[in-house]
Amino acid sequence: MINETTQSHAEFMTMKYRCTPNTIVMGSTTAGADGNCSYLILPGNFRATFTGLGVYYPDKSETQQIGILPDIEVKSTIQGIRQGRDEVLEAAIKYLNAEEVK
């Protein structure tokens, strides 16, 4: 399960899991904030931080600033949030209990 707050190592792990048979990624697109941090000190002691390496799917498509796309998109709704529900988890449980998965 992923969403827009999924970043960095969790994005790498999602890509890794996706290479495993019978894996489904569910939720919403991740932040696309993966890769190492490089630093540059500029005049005036201003410190700039940026990603120094590209991060790609095994098929060489980019992930940075794009994010990891789910296989099944499920987004939380305002109503669900107000009710204290985890709609992504509910959808995952429903998926796992479905006849076609068994």
Give your account of this protein's structure.
It is flat, with a radius of gyration of 17 Å. The strands form two sheets. A two-stranded parallel ribbon has the order 1-4. A two-stranded antiparallel ribbon has the order 2-3. The longest helix is centred in the C-terminal third of the chain and has 11 residues, at 87-97. It has three helices and four strands. The protein has helices at residues 9-18, 78-82, 87-97; strands at 26-27, 37-42, 46-51, 72-73. It has a single domain, classed as 2-enoyl-CoA Hydratase, Chain A, domain 1. It starts with 8 loop residues before the first helix and ends in a 5-residue tail after the last helix. By secondary structure, the chain is an alpha+beta fold. The mean pLDDT is 91.
